[in-house]
Design brief:
Layout lengths: L1 H7 L37 E6 L6 E5 L5 E4 L28 E2 L2 E4 L4 E7 L3 H4 L5 H20 L13 H8 L6 H16 L11 H5 L9
Length: 218
């Protein structure tokens, strides 16, 4: 009932509005499905147990009046990721994120921001959103960093700027710089052109790292 009311009052252009026109029916998940294809959204349900020795034969779903045993042959786990605390940073255990304002970390206990400390992605906003959301999220955090740098809120590096690349490589393994990134971009668009597509992305990190950087990439 709560879900039905939420869909009926969904905000325009919200994710819930996309589901508002779908039929709401009582489905017996334990019963054999009817002929044909169907897609059922079971809101506020959780898989509590998986059955099967060699392969999945069923799952137990809780969240309704009683647990329900649902026969199935395939189980796909999606999302469900929870952020973990980062040593030295405040953490919101309920939302599983590092508290922040536009990417700038702040401590809710004191209300003070932590200059020079920023977050992006799921640790910033929770486990939601695809590539487009991640891109906007990154743009927001970068804009915050630039604003702080222009306002003089960031400490100046004690070493020359030219040493920054070496500093990063000492701290992080497998660094991908701008030249390498643009080489990967060029290779993906070239792969896509052969198929009449904007790009064809590499399937693994190893494949991307094998792309050679050249001086002709700017």
């Amino acid at each position: 009932e709560k879900t039905a009311a939420q869909l009926a009052t969904a905000e325009p252009d919200s994710p819930a509005e996309l589901l508002a026109t779908l039929p709401l029916v009582d489905v017996d998940l334990a019963a054999a499905p009817p002929a044909g294809r169907r897609l059922v959204f079971a809101f506020s349900r959780t898989v509590s147990e998986v059955f099967g020795a060699e392969q999945v034969t069923g799952i137990e779903v809780v969240g309704g009046a009683e647990p329900v045993l649902v026969p199935c042959a395939t189980l796909i786990r999606s999302t469900g990721h929870l952020g973990e605390p980062v040593p030295g940073l405040p953490f919101d255990h309920q939302a599983a994120v590092v508290p922040n304002e536009a990417g700038r970390v702040f401590d809710p206990a004191t209300g003070e921001t932590t200059d020079g400390t920023y977050v992006v992605g799921w640790i910033k906003r929770g486990a939601n959103g695809g590539i487009g959301a991640n891109r906007l999220c990154a743009h927001e955090t970068v804009a915050t960093i630039v604003a702080d740098a222009n306002a003089g809120r960031l400490r100046r590096a004690p070493e020359p700027v030219a040493d920054f690349g070496a500093f990063v490589r000492r701290r992080v393994g497998g660094v991908v710089g701008r030249r390498k990134m643009l080489a990967i971009e060029k290779a993906e668009t070239k792969r896509g052109a052969a198929q009449g597509r904007p790009r064809v992305k590499f399937e693994t990190v190893e494949q991307m790292l094998k792309v050679r950087s050249t001086t002709s990439v700017y």
